[in-house]
Design goal:
alpha+beta; about 30% strand; single chain; Aminopeptidase; 3-stranded antiparallel β-sheet
Amino acid sequence: MRMNSNRNIPCEILVDDPDRPLAMLLLQGDMVFALGAAHSFQGMFADLLAGQVDTAASWPPASLVNALQKQHEREGQAGLFLNTVPVIAYEAAIQAGFEKHPLDKGSPPAYLYFFEGSPRFAELVQYTCRLAEGSELLKLMVQGISYDDGGYYTRMCLENGPSFVCEVDRVPVCWSCTHLNGTMGMIYTPEEFRRKGYARSLAAFQIDHMLGREGFACCHVVEGNSASESMVLGLGAKRDDTACCWRSIIWPESRLAVILSA
C-alpha cells in the first residue's frame, strides 16, 4: 500500500496501487474514510495493521501515533473510527485482523442522496438563512448530536466549514454544518421550533450553496429515517445504493504496542 501526503489538510491518503489506484483510505489522525473497489479493502486494512506502507516519509505518521496514544491513555485501548465507510469496508477491516469495539452495538446503514447541477431552490427558502463563521454554532450544534462527546469532531467540522443557520428575529431556530467528508451535516431543529418549515428552508439554502460551489450536494440518510428521506426525495435527490456506516474498530494490543513504540 502506498501513502501520499496531502499538505492542504492534515491527512494521509493511502492507495492500493500508486500507478492504477482502485481504492483509497484517507487517514486523518485516528479517523478513516474509505472509497473504491470493495475487493481492495481487506488487503489495505491488513497492510495498515502490519505497517506495510510504502512511503518516502516516516511511518507511522505522528498524527496517528498521537491519536492512538491519547486513546490508550484514556480508555486502555485504541483504534480507528471509520467515518462514513461502505459497510463492506468495515467488514473487511474485521476480516483483516482489527477487532470489533466492545461498545459498538451496530447501527442501521445509511445511504447517500445527492443533487447535481445549478442552484435551484431559492424559492423554498422562506426564512432568513445564512452562513455561520468558524465555531460560532458550536454550543448549538452539540445540542443535536449524540455521537460526539466533548464536541471534538463537531468543532473540526465547524472550523473546516461551511456551517449554516436559520434565524427568526435573529434567534437561531435551526442549524447544520458540513461533515469533513464534504457531505451535509445533520440539520437540527429544537423541539419548540419544529413543524414550521425551518429545516426545509435551511436544507434548500445549504443545497444551493453547495451546488453553487461544486455543482454537487449530498447527504447521508440513515435507513428508517423516513422524514429526512421524504424531504430530500421531494426535492429531487437521487440515491446511491451503497450501504454506509460509522463504526469504531480496535487495534489489537500486540500490534498497537509496535505502532506506539515507533
